[in-house]
């Protein structure tokens, strides 16, 4: 699947992780991770830290799938508002899901502290703005629900938002717990760390064309006919994981993003906060450490790469126009634009763990706008399950939580 088009900023910003090592022999290991993006990297970090012998394979150059197109924002908020999620899955599960996301931001930060690498990880606040009167009413309910749940949140009036951001919005929610990073750099830093410590085998340009269950696990067959014998398989292939799933569990969508030329820091809004809005699809934005502005949104319910590519120019123009309407004083000039594939689930939650009747095949599917925080949770849950340690989050985010 063609996961992105245009010119993703992270691939241009960073030197390409120059690693070419296709599998050319039959091998045996305890656990195989499929996917070298941020999800696969976090799974590798967790398993290596637990002493699990593992290899990671990817059909592409390392880290150049969906991770390259991510805008890499880490928030505890899920695409489905808490009040709506309570209606979908119940109060306890909904609150637990939000609290798991909140904790995972710190857990991601600690991963990079552990390997002593900084992928431009930065703690920033978040503003969620009401797009209209419906959004204002939603935020009033959402504020109460989050406050009652003990989640960090502050309600802002129209006047407060105008004072703090210079934006006209009817209301907003604010918290100081979010973060942002360079997602591509993060993934390659993790994999390079464990590769150099000889705790991980890494094979690029290696496509699994077939697989079968065995008495002790799985036998994977690559397109070149090489075999990998293992006890466990972790599917961290994100939006390309469908070929391993008996049934469809997500809807594929296309999203679009632009990044500006660097601007004078005097133009940047307060605390370089993450900003997003209540309407669907929502507009969202962040800054980079070299004073660029990333704006994303304009999601469409299609995943045809050709249609997505044809729409990119128009979508980029719409995103720039919307940004300039919100911040007319900021001299925003689009430097790069790109489109990517992402997906959503019925309840906005990820799918983590084993699929019914597919033992020892673990899925780390961090679908939705919280891909990185969900991926951190998935890595921890799957790591625990593989070593035989119970994890209550497996039920919360598992395939059995609803009819597929």
Automatic annotation (TrEMBL):
The lineage of its organism: Bacteria, Pseudomonadati, Bacteroidota, Flavobacteriia, Flavobacteriales. One of its GO terms (cellular component) is cytoplasm. SUPFAM superfamilies: FAD/NAD(P)-binding domain. This is FAD-binding oxidoreductase. Residues 31-383 form the FAD dependent oxidoreductase domain. It comes from Paenimyroides viscosum.
């Amino acid at each position: 699947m063609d996961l992105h088009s245009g010119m993703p900023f992270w691939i241009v910003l960073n030197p390409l992780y120059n690693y070419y090592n296709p599998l050319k022999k039959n091998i045996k290991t305890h656990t195989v991770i499929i996917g070298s993006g941020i999800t696969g990297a976090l799974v590798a970090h967790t398993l290596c830290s637990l002493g699990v012998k593992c290899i990671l394979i990817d059909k592409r150059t390392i880290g150049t799938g969906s991770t390259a197109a991510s805008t890499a924002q880490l928030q505890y908020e899920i695409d489905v508002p808490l009040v709506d999620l309570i209606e979908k899955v119940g109060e306890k599960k909904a609150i637990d899901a939000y609290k798991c996301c909140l904790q995972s931001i710190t857990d991601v930060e600690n991963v990079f502290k552990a390997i002593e690498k900084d992928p431009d990880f930065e703690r920033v606040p978040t503003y969620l703005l009401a797009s209209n009167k419906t959004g204002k009413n939603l935020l009033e309910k959402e504020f109460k629900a989050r406050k009652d749940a003990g989640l960090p949140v502050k309600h802002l009036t129209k006047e407060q938002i105008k004072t703090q951001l210079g934006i006209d919005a009817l209301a907003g929610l604010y918290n100081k717990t979010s973060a942002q990073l360079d997602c591509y750099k993060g993934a390659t830093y993790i994999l390079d760390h464990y590769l150099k410590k000889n705790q991980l085998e890494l094979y690029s340009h290696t496509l699994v064309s077939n697989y079968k269950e065995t008495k002790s696990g799985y036998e994977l067959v690559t397109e070149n006919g090489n075999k990998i014998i293992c006890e466990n398989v972790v599917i961290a292939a994100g939006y390309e994981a469908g070929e391993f799933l008996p049934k469809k569990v997500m809807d594929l969508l296309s999203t679009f993003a632009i990044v500006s030329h660097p601007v004078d820091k005097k133009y940047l809004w307060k605390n370089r906060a993450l900003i997003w809005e209540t309407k669907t699809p929502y507009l969202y934005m962040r800054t980079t450490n070299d004073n660029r502005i990333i704006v994303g949104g304009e999601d469409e319910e299609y995943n045809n790469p050709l249609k997505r590519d044809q729409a990119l120019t128009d979508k980029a123009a719409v995103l720039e126009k919307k940004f300039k309407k919100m911040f007319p004083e900021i001299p925003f000039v689009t430097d790069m634009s790109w489109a990517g594939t992402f997906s959503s689930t019925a309840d906005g939650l990820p799918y983590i763990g084993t699929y019914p009747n597919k033992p020892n095949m673990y899925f780390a599917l961090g679908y939705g706008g919280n891909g990185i925080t969900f991926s951190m949770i998935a890595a921890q849950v799957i790591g625990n399950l593989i070593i035989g340690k119970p994890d209550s989050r497996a039920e919360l985010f598992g395939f059995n939580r609803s009819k597929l």
